[in-house]
Amino acid sequence: MLVNKRRKLIISTPFKNYSTTLENIFSEMGWDKFYGAHPIITGDSTECRSFEHKHNNLVSDHFKDEGYEVILPVRNPYNRVNSMWKHSKYFHEINFDEWFFENSKCACCFPVTRLYQYDHLVKVENLVEDFESLDIKIDFLPQFNKSIETGVEFTEIQKEQIYYLHYEDFKNGEYEK
Question: What is the pTM of this model?
Fold first, then answer.
């Protein structure tokens, strides 16, 4: 999570939503990095979870009470799921179907618009313009941590499953099925 105390703004940094790029750019612009618990679902146990995680989804009561607004990046769910799978392949060789049915159920892989609180949504595919509409100027948006390898071609069944599981991001981000 990135915080600008002067403007009372927070940028959430969900997993595989350009979090590394945003963290690098905004920390150079003077925004503070705040790490917290691994993303959790309300009512979920926080035992055995790292409290030094950049993808946390907990906006403290302090920020809420002080009137901070939260900006949430959302990414086309097909691209995000593909990126999550490619990321997992760095740790162990796994085909997409196996990963999708066995390993994609972690809270950090859930739809960001369901898991994170937000006041403003910015689309990863349109970050410069969307941030500009919030009076935040970014001159250049390099992509850090970009994978060279191409992604998987989803079958129609896989597309349906991704649409079903990530419906909130499709709807809130106005992405086409």
Answer: 0.83
